[in-house]
Structure formats: structure tokens, C-alpha cells
Amino acid sequence: MKKHHLLVFVSVLVVVLFSFIDRPTNIISWDAFGYYLYLPMTFIYNDLAVNNIDVVLNIFEQYKSSNTLYQLFPASEGGHVMVYTMGMAIHYAPAFLFGHIAALLSGAPADGFSQPYQNALLIWGLFYAIIGLWFFYKILRHFFDPWISSVTLFLVVLGTNYLIHITLHGQNAYTHNYLFTDYAILIYLTIKWHQNHKWKYLVFLSIITGLMILSRPTEIIALLIPLLWNVSNIEDFKEKLRLLLHRKIQLLVFTTIILLIGSLQLFYWKMQTGTFLFNSYGINPGVGLDLFNPHTIDFLFSFRKGWFIYTPLAVFFIIGFFALFRLNRKIFLPFLLFYIFNIYLISSWACWWYAASFSQRPMVSSLPISGILLGYFLLWLKNQSKVIKPVFAVVLILILSLNIFQSLKYRNGAIDNERMTKKFYFNTFFKYSVADSDRKDLLIDRYFPNGEKLIYEDGYNHNILSELTFEDENGNNDSVFYSGTKSYCLKSQNPFSPKIEVPYKEITKEDHIWFRLSARVYCDTNSQFSFVCTFTHNNYNYKYFTINSENIDLKANEWNYISFDYLSPEVRNRKDLFTTYFWLRNDGKLCIDDYKVETFTPK
What's the pTM value of the predicted model, to 2 decimals? Predict the structure, then answer.
């Protein structure tokens, strides 16, 4: 084996080994459950519309697929709608088929989720990753010699967050693994078509592009690569237009195939919602694109998830643009525009830190493009003086070592998957494992298995945000009251109390607030009511929470005290409104008094 091939072999071997070392207990879980659900509901349960939600609930309970069933929601036309588009389900189809055959032959439950399906999806995801690395190496060899190609592939696998997000606990079932391979294939087919304009390359290019867009609609920006390939100036652009017009039949077929693939989702939405275009994320305003409020600085530089902090090799991707401009200007423009739009789009996601992940997970998908940029940097470096080359070589080795060290820390829990801060990062930098006492420097823990409760108040400033005693014109009952001379009584004709509503930005500049809500309530035995607390973004609720009368011990026809703590969500926009109110849900009797909201803001 040639020495440069050894680097490729080691890279692939590490991916294979860690895929089984960090094998997941349930790979069809969380987002992957939502991507995958199309397949069993269509081919096993014959219920793509999910009219029988009990089937999904039983599976969800049996396999513990995630904490909540956020992957689908009730449709206005009946049944339920999948939150995610179906592109990933098509990617999974071979694994589903092999898993189903294995389940039938082995006697395991042929329910779409038993162990044969789990094993098939894990192995198929690993196989798809290896295909991606193979195509990645092929496109590198198109541009570079064997040594630069091998070193580049090795650095991308071990010097970025690729390895974590391809191997750790079933990450290979997520979009970034499949899209990495898709991007590598897309670039390879783009190169081949521009060499000889053969139909087979164009057809496969349109299929892979359509599948990428169907998997994640923002991948429509991938079209920039084939459309602007070999375009570096106005004359090149005119020449590209002439080429496309000369091959207008191919262009028509290319466009038609992409539209046909995309139409699968449009017809599904039409069937379930009555409209061809539908924003499935609209049901959860806590997520979605904020195109006019991007988080690009945090996305790139924050100690929470900053790409340059946790994937420092990315600095050389950016430097690679300068080398690319000098050495191969024909592909500079498509890569530059793709990079700009890609970072803008994925940093405009409301959950810009992408939940439990290492560094910036969505950047893994486009690593084939980043790898080419890195290769051009190495090509530039190869031709530099004997003084410059060893300096950069040492820097690259240090960055590779840092990435491996940080990846191992993440794998061991010493880098938190969501709550990192600058203070915690530096205080625990040389620690491979951290104690609970170290974790005080992390962002607030938002997971409360036993209900939200502010325990340690010493680190917070306490204020009364609002207090309604109903002694003014808001009071409407002077015969039943807890204090003073009036209270507020709700009726079936007027079931909502006055709201307490304040924009987040008017309360604090910090990243979270604790609210303590309390009131005195007077009700009869038939009353059903909710004490509501929520945030609203563009008039849609998120982190909607209620205390319901059926779930608390209340004495009828007496004044009762109700109180609970509520932690603000990760606010999507600082203008979002905190809102609380009472809601009488039947024709019973409910009066409220001394309605108070207290705030606890970090000191």
C-alpha cells in the first residue's frame, strides 16, 4: 500500500470503528424518527395520513423514540402531518427494505422499528458515508495529486466535526451524513458533465440535486455549483448561457426531474393540508428561519457552538478561497456564492446552535466543498519557501491535535452539547472529564424531569413584574374577594382574564428569566380552568405551559393559592412577548384575586 493511500485507509477505518464503538441503542429516534416515519406508515401500516395516531403512539412508547412526539402534528383536514420533508425517507428506503426482509426472516416484529430495522439503518448509513468518502477522494484527485488529496481527506475526517457527527450514537442517520455524500456526488457529476456533456451525468445530477432539496429545502443553493461552474467573469457567464441554450433539451430534462422529485412533497402537503405549499415548521414558532435576524456572529465565533472555535481548521477553508482565486478561478464564484448563502441560511435558523451537537453540525454537509478549499490551500503551501511550509505544517498539526482533543472531550461529556460558555471552556480546557461543581459556569440547564422549579435564588435579582389586585376598573365582582374589596370573575361568555403581557427585551438583556406566577382562585366543583403562561412570536405560541384545575387539589367555594415557576425559553426574538392569563374552559365559576408575576433575572 502506498503511503498516501494509508492516510485514506486510516480515515475510513476510524469511521467504521467508531460507528460501532459508539453504536446507538435506538438509531430511529429524535429527528431520524420523523425523517423515517414516512416509510413504515406507507408500506407497513398503509396510513401515510396517520389517521390512526394510536399506532404511532404505541411505537413511540415501546421504542422511546424521543421525549415528546414533535415529529408530526394534527392536520386541519384530518389525520396528521409529518414535520419533515420526505427526502431522508427516500435515502433510508434501501435500509428499510433490507430491515423488513430481515425482520420477516428472523421472526422479529415486522413493525418498522425493531432491531433488524435499526441494524439495517446503522449499516446503510455507514455504507453511505463510505460512498461519500470515496466520491470525495475522487473529486480531490481531479484537482490535486495523490498526497494532497490524501492529506486533505485525512484532515477533513479527523480535523473537523465530521467524525463526531458521522459516528457518535447514530449520527449517521441524520441529514448531514447523507448530504455530505450527496454533495460529493454532485460535484463529481458536475465535473463529468462539463467534460463531455453526457446524458447519464446530467440525469444522475438532476436526481441527486432533487433528492438533496427534498431532504432539506434550503439545499436549493446547491444548484449554484453546476449552474456557475467554470464561470469567473461576464464572458464566462455568456458562454455558459450559450452552452445551456445549445443543450436546452438537457436543461429541460434536468429541470423537469428536479420538479418531479419535489412534487412528491407538494402532493403530500396537498393531501394532508389542502395546499401545495405548506410551512410544516409553522406549528412550532420556536424554530424556523429568521432571514432578517441571522445569528451569524454567534454561529461562527461563540463559545457555545462557534464553528471557528470548535472546528478551527475552518480558518484554512476560508484562507483556501484566496488560493482558489489564484489557482483555479473558474470555480471560485460558485464556491464563494454557495458559502455565503449557506452560512447565511443555516445561521438564520432560530435554533442556530442546532441542539445537542458538536461545533456547527450543518456545516458537515458541505465539507466536500470545504475540502476542496483546503486542498487548494495545501497546493499553495506546497509551492512556498522552506521557511513558510514548516510553520504552517506545525499549525495544521496543532489544529488537528486540538480538534481530536476537543472531540474526545465532547464524547466524554467534558464539552457540553448545548450549554457551553467562554468561562467554562477556559476553566475546564485541560480537563478530559469535569465535575458537577465545574458545570455552574455553563448556560442554564433547561431539562427538568420533575417539573420546572427555581431552587437557587441567590444568583438572581428579584422583582415584581406585575400585580393585579383588581381594585381598579379591572375588578368586576365586589361580593367575592380575597383582599381589598373586589376580584375578577370569569364567565363562559367571557372566559379569559386580563392578560399580563411584556416583551422579553423590557425585562432583561440576559439569556434567561425565571418567572414565578401566583394567584388566589375561588371556584366551584364544576370549574375547569387553566392558568396559562407562554411566549409568542408573530402571534404564535411557543413554550406554552398550563396548570390545569383537574391536576391540582382545590377546595370548592374557598380561596385557594396557586403558584408555579416558569423558565423562559430560548427566545427567538427579544421582542417576543411573555404572556400569562387564566382561561375558564367550561360554564363553571372562577374568580381570581392577587394575581402576581415575579421575575428572577441573573445577577
Answer: 0.94
